[in-house]
Amino acid sequence: MKLVPRYERLQRLVHRFPTLDPSAIETCVTMLRLSNELTGAYEAHFSRHGLSQGRFVVLVQLFLAEDGGETLSPADLAELSSCSRATMTGLLDTLEKDGLVSRVDHPEDRRMYSVHLTERGRDLMQGMLPDHYRRTAALMAHLSHDERDTLRALLAKVSAGVPALRDP
């Protein structure tokens, strides 16, 4: 039995669900597949360095802040990383346990502290980032600069529609 292409199967469903938009569904499924592929590839990449994506994002934020002479609080890191403060606390706990970050008390407010890369964390980022950015460039190498601009604009439009999935 020959498998009917997905688009043709979706076209058949239009008879049952007249408001179904096969093109929209096919495009969304394609994005979901790409998302899964990227997630898997990045997870493998980060795990080679003993990291998760969340831990990597925190370390990169700290590396960039340090490079600019800035310090970041856990709340700053949570905002920059698009995660909750509770999630950030967990990430910082494991990063500190692994000797990659340290927490430094605020000089005037005992309730506050800043987070800093340790020498070990800095060395990890120094060693990892060139390869990480090379791999990211290779991922995008098949697109021209104009195509990348167009893709970013299109993804921003799709992102604006995400609330439609959340609405009850």
Radius of gyration over all CA atoms, rounded:
21 Å
Which of globular, elongated, flat, extended, rod-shaped describes the shape? Answer: elongated
Secondary-structure-derived class = mainly alpha
Please count the helical segments.
8
**In total, how many beta strands?**
2
Note poorly predicted spans. none
Task: Provide the spatial order of strands within the biggest beta sheet.
Answer: 1-2
Helix fraction bin: 55-70%
How far apart lie the N and C ends? 39 Å
Task: Give the DSSP E fraction (strand runs of 2 or more residues).
Answer: 5-15%
Order of helix and strand elements from N to C terminus: HHHHHEEHHH
- The pLDDT mean sits at 91
Reported for the largest beta sheet, the result is: 2 strands, antiparallel
Describe the structure in your own words.
This protein has eight helices and two strands; from the N terminus they run αααααββααα. The chain is mostly helical and 168 residues long. The protein has a two-stranded antiparallel sheet with strand order 1-2. It is elongated and about 65 Å long. The relative contact order is 0.07. The mean pLDDT is 91.
Outline of this structure?
With 168 residues, the protein is mainly alpha-helical.
What labels would you give this structure?
single chain, mainly alpha, 6% strand, 168 residues, two-stranded antiparallel sheet, elongated
